[in-house]
Amino acid sequence: MNTNRLSTEMQNALIKQMTKENHASQIFLSYGCWADTKGYGGIANFLYRHSQEERNHMIKFMRYILDRGGEAKVEAIPAPPENPQSLTDCFNKVFQHEVDNTTSIYDLVDLAFREKDWATWNFMQWFVKEQIEEEKLALELIDKLKIAGGDRATDESLFTLDKALEAAADEVSLPQEATADNPS
Ligand SMILES: [Fe+2]
Ligand SMILES: [Fe+2]
User: Fold this and answer.
1) Residue 98 CA to ligand 2 centre (angstroms)
2) Residue 98, annotated ligand binder?
3) Which of 134, 84, 74, 63 is nearest to 104 (CA)?
4) Which ligand is nearest to the CA of 94?
5) pLDDT tens, residue order, the chain (184 aa)
6) Do residues 65 and 14 make contact, with C-beta atoms less than 8 angstroms apart?
7) Which ligand has the shortest distance to the CA of 22?
8) Binding residues for Fe cation, per the UniProt record (predicted)?
9) Which residues, at least 6 apart from 158, have a Cβ–Cβ distance to it below 8 Å?
10) For the chain, which terminal residue's Cβ has fewer other Cβ atoms within 10 angstroms, N or C?
11) Domains and CATH numbers, the chain
């Protein structure tokens, strides 16, 4: 009796996403090391925490595959890319990684829809929401750095930005939570 509730194609796609989340975790860890080496301890701390979030995402995919009677697989991940050239480059790349990951999430939603696999479709909605938050978080990094002066920012404004990111929350609010009293 086949007790795997996932199609072979779906299981493979979910395993691929596990690998992608694991890769993202390593990328942010390596960017964190780069920032740390440059002396930006706060930014490094932010990236380390973000790295853990990506690992958590990987675990969620692993758990889901197993809970559906499937076989989860931990695959090899490619080496992280080259170090960023600057803080602007670093934050732009963080944003781009999130956008690329959103594309993969959408592909999984699309596959679930085509297969009428509503359990996976429902599971994936958490990630659709999560990517709105992650892209917003990355956009905020870009905005904060721009306000600080971008690549021409003074040491003083970078010091302030670094401190702010050390204490920055990992969670951002969703647009659905906004009200007239609290639009931000
Ligand atoms: Fe993720
Ligand atoms: Fe992410």
Assistant:
1) 5
2) yes
3) 134
4) 2
5) 999 999 999 999 999 999 999 999 999 999 999 999 999 999 999 999 999 999 999 999 999 999 999 999 999 999 999 999 999 999 999 999 999 999 999 999 999 999 999 999 999 999 999 999 999 999 999 999 999 999 899 999 999 999 999 988 888 888 899 999 989 8
6) yes
7) 1
8) 21, 54, 57, 98, 131
9) 40, 87, 148
10) N
11) 8-171 (1.20.1260.10)
